[in-house]
């Protein structure tokens, strides 16, 4: 989609809700579902949500240029909404604020969704890391130095962008270690009565005490990683900590544009956990192999659909939409079809096109 409007997750969410979900249509109900009317305009209305509901997913208030050469940074995905939704976004702003608005538009509901996303990434993803066995809690304290450096770089970049009212706030690798200790101290390092008794034993060597404390922390880390009740309790504490750090930055004119956000200190804690998980798991070689394979599958399916005669591979409803417009519409329809696939269905569809498994015409698309 590089030169046909681009593809971006937030833009696709708005499109799903306002166009793709097959519930509402602008034309009166008939025996035939009409996608395009006589002048070629798209009549789909998706779920038929209110403008305020649609505004809650409008995370980035800028249209994505249709061609890659018109984008400032050609190497990065431009976040925003598709050009085809420009008029819809104008209507959303008009309906929510009572007039067309030219400033930065992001509703209080959308900012709450943002916070929920960040909390989920920093807590439940971390819980999944422990549950899957990818990493144990103590592993987070002995990662390669470049991982901590990447985490610091990302956090400082986001601090500068999201907290201009804290211009001097920065973190370093020592801060990351301290935050990890703060997050895990109760679970892994807290002294109890036995530990204090041991500390006072003069006859026991420092090395023996060190061994004992290390074994205690290792046992606590293993319990946290393997016991679902301990993991859930730990995650709940993290979520509570994040929720207690929420503040509201008020808009001078429009209460609809108030911004909920994490206070800067809570933000840093959440970002440390989120980015540690990203750097250690999402960028791990095992997952990169899967991502590379997934990219290949998506590209091959897309190429098969958009070449001459490829529309015959589409289900009836997508084929009707595909054949009802110009080249930009054809590319976008193929994109919509693939973007709506689950991983399992995408692999199955790819295998039926290119694999050596026995083919069947009886299983529907």
Give your account of this protein's structure:
By secondary structure, the protein is mostly helical. It folds into 3 domains: 1-105, no CATH class; 114-247 and 267-283, no CATH class; 285-365, no CATH class. The chain has helices spanning 9-20, 51-55, 86-97, 108-132, 145-162, 173-189, 193-200, 206-226, 228-243, 264-282, 285-306, 316-322, 327-339, 343-354; strands at 63-64, 81-82, 246-249, 259-262. The strands form 2 sheets. Strands 1-2 form a two-stranded parallel sheet. The protein has a two-stranded antiparallel ribbon with strand order 3-4. Helix 8 packs across helix 9 and helix 11 (285-306) packs across helix 13 (327-339). The longest helix has 25 residues, at 108-132.
Topology:
Layout: H1 9-20, H2 51-55, E1 63-64, E2 81-82, H3 86-97, H4 108-132, H5 145-162, H6 173-189, H7 193-200, H8 206-226, H9 228-243, E3 246-249, E4 259-262, H10 264-282, H11 285-306, H12 316-322, H13 327-339, H14 343-354
Parallel strand pairs: 1-2
Antiparallel strand pairs: 3-4
Helix pairs in contact: 4-9, 4-10, 5-10, 8-9, 11-13, 11-14
- The gyration radius over C-alpha positions equals 26 Å
Principal-axis shape equals globular
Q: How far apart, in Å, are the first and last alpha carbons?
A: 23 Å
Low confidence ranges: none
Q: What is the total tally of β strands?
A: 4
By helix and strand content, what is the structural category?
A: mainly alpha
Strand percent estimate: under 5%
The overall pLDDT average reads 89
Main sheet attributes: strand count, strand direction, barrel closure: 2 strands, parallel
* Neighbour order of strands in the largest sheet: 1-2
Oligomer: single chain
Helix content: 55-70%
| Individual helix count | 14
Secondary-structure element order, as H and E?
A: HHEEHHHHHHHEEHHHHH
Number of domains: 3
